[in-house]
Amino acid sequence: MSEAKTLVISDFRKLPEYTNARTKQKQLVEANPFIEITDSKSLEEAKKRRTALKSGRTELQKGEKLIASKVSDFRKEVKEETAILVAITLPHEEKQQAEINRYDEKRKKEREEKARKERERILSHQNTIKAFKDEKAKAINTATVKTIGAIMEDIAQSNIDVEEFENDFISAKGEVLVMAEQKKANLDEAERLRLQREELEKQRKQREAEEAELKRKREEEEKKLKKKREEEEAKLKAQREELAKQKAELERKEKERKERELKEKREREEKEKKAAEEAKKKESARRALIMLGEGFEYNEERKCFYFGAVAIKKKEVELGTTEQFSDIALPEFRMSYKKEVERLEAIKPDRDKLMELVNNIHSIAKPQMATNEACKLLSKMEDELNALLESHVELIKEL
């Protein structure tokens, strides 16, 4: 059996298909040596060689059925021989495939890295657009009426290289421009209202200033009028005081004249009264002396004269003086006269005090009156007081 197997195998190896297959496998190995992959070009070449080696192997494996069909009784042996033939290129194929696998793994990692970097690039562009939008939105939110124009111009002129995301950037740019325009409209309205308030405040202050100026002028005019009025009042007061002074002087002089006339009248009346009293006394003494000289006697019990001789010098009777009368008058007359003299002497201090009081009242300075009504009333009171004092002066003198 072994010999038959050897014969069959030997005959099999002599088959042209086998010879051609073996030659072709060797040619494939020689034509497709191992290549180290360093780049895309070497990768393509490695894949090309790997494919050539693989094609040679698969063609053999496909041709295995053809060969085996001719030697169906020795299929197993053919398979082994085929494996021998395959083994010619398989190590080269596997080696090349391992290199391809290595390079594919490297390429996979590179693709993953590239994908990561791509994701980072995309995210970076997206973040750049978002940062641009956030930055401009923040600037818009804090903008003033003076800065919003520059911000809008800066947004309009902004241009960021975001590669294929340019449309996203333009969209974001449009959004912040719309936001800026709305902010500008709000700021313009706020500025308009502020200017309106400032104008109203300015008008209010101007109005207050004008009112204050009018008030100042009015107060100044009032001060001038008050000063003028005070000066006129002072002038009128001075005139009234001068008139009052003149009136007082006239009244004083009139009073002095009246007092002088009254005094002269009183003195004259006093003299006349004294003269009348003296004459009356002299007449009484004369009559008493005459009666006594004619021989009358004074009856003490009946208080009347009776005729009787009296030793009296004619000369003393004719003189009739108070001293002589007091010496020669009847005891009753002498007693009455003495009592009267004593009474007058006793009351004289009181009478003098009362007269002094009257004179003091006359000498009281009159108060200065500011109005004509008061001056008239004072004058009336003065006249009534003078009349009252005059009537009482007579009573004082009669004490």
Automatic annotation (TrEMBL):
Alphabetical keyword list: Coiled coil
Superkingdom: Bacteria
Parts forming coiled coils: 93-120
Region listing for Disordered, in residue ranges: 201-234, 247-283
Protein name, per record: Uncharacterized protein
Lineage: Bacteria, Pseudomonadati, Bacteroidota, Bacteroidia, Marinilabiliales
